[in-house]
Specification:
Strand order of the largest sheet: 2-1-3-7-9
Radius of gyration: 20 Å
Oligomer: single chain
Order of helices and strands: HHEHHEHEEEEHEHEHEHHHHH
Distance between the termini: 65 Å
Largest sheet: 5 strands, parallel
CATH class of the largest domain: Alpha Beta
Bound molecules: iron/sulfur cluster
CATH superfamily of the largest domain: NADH:ubiquinone oxidoreductase-like, 20kDa subunit
Structural class: alpha/beta
Shape: globular
CATH topology of the largest domain: Rossmann fold
Strand content: 5-15%
Number of strands: 9
CATH architecture of the largest domain: 3-Layer(aba) Sandwich
Length: 303
């Protein structure tokens, strides 16, 4: 049954609240949702060198939940984890989607550019498939830090030559709109919000790393409730101790994301609130940059 304008406004208000955007963009979001519901654009989701954590994160999303999102506003043409089809049937579904074109291509995981046969779909190296699929997409979403920046598969020595989607698109000479939605995993709001905004007139402001500034505009550190303690140099020296976690390796100052006020798991908590340092999971150098491993050594230690 066709949805009414009031229902779109209600969904838009829930989405805006969930995304932390306030009430101002509700009419614009309602229009975007109405446009999406009318078209139900195809979504093609491919996975490369990933743990599927970003898919799990999406399925944990709320307002709108993944079932509502996927059935009401998108038409899922292929998703390897959700697909009921397997083997040749699944490969045929991918081919049908790529031939049709005009979909939103979401890529989860890095692409083994230096060892193409390390990740294949059927017999086709992933690097070839994502290049073909991106050429016929209306936009490409790199979901998670592995797809956005290389992440854990691209960590030191990087034996498979794991590369992010930006590198793959540049190598293929493609200029399709491309957004990075980092995070290990990416927050469901970041994925949903970016997908809706990019499909509505490509209406997303991005930074030089192709990240939507609505979610990645400010460092974690600047929004952290412990910021004043950092300024007063009130540092926790051992895990569990009260205070700012900088001396325990917190990378909030290097990491752009809105975790402190968005929260995770329905907004109940986030890393620092759970007394774990920010590991910089949404940072371009996460895992990949040898100068910044997951945790710095506590300053009290020498080895
Ligand atoms: S806990 Fe981390 S993010 Fe928060 S103020 Fe300290 S260094 Fe910054
Ligand atoms: S606080 Fe840091 S490590 Fe935790 S989810 Fe946010 S960006 Fe990732």
């Amino acid at each position: 049954m066709a949805r009414t304008r009031r229902e779109f406004l209600k969904d838009a208000a829930m989405l805006a609240a969930g995304l932390g955007l306030g009430s101002a963009p509700v009419p614009r979001l309602a229009l975007a949702l109405e446009g999406l519901a009318a078209q139900r654009p195809g979504l093609v989701w491919l996975q490369g060198q990933s743990c599927s954590g970003c898919s799990v994160s999406l399925l944990n999303g709320e307002r709108p939940g993944p079932a509502e999102l996927l059935t009401r506003y998108f038409s899922v043409w292929f998703h390897p984890t959700l697909s009921a089809a397997t083997g040749d049937e699944a490969l045929a579904a991918v081919e049908r989607a790529v031939n049709a074109g005009g979909y939103l291509l979401a890529v989860e995981g890095a692409v083994p550019l230096g060892m193409p046969r390390a990740c294949t779909v059927g017999q086709e190296p992933l690097v070839d498939l994502v290049s073909r699929a991106a050429a016929r997409a209306r936009a490409v979403l790199a979901v998670g830090t592995c797809a956005s920046f290389g992440g854990i598969p691209a960590a030191a020595t990087n034996p498979t030559g794991a590369a992010p989607m930006g590198e793959i698109l540049a190598k293929a000479g493609l200029s399709v709109p491309h957004l990075n939605v980092p995070g290990c995993p990416a927050h469901p709001h970041w994925i949903v919000g970016t997908a809706v905004l990019v499909l509505h007139k490509n209406d997303v402001t991005v930074d030089k790393e192709h990240r939507p500034t609505a979610f990645f505009g400010r460092p974690v550190h600047d929004q952290c409730p412990h910021f004043a303690r950092y300024e007063r140099q009130e540092f926790a020296r051992t895990p569990g101790e009260d205070g700012c976690l900088f001396k325990l390796g917190c990378q909030g100052a290097l990491t752009h994301a809105d975790c402190p006020w968005r929260g995770w798991n329905g907004g109940t908590s986030w890393c620092v609130r759970g007394r774990a340092p920010c590991t910089g999971c949404a940072r371009p150098g996460f895992a990949r940059d040898p100068a910044y491993p997951f945790f710095r050594l506590n300053e009290g230690r020498t080895a």
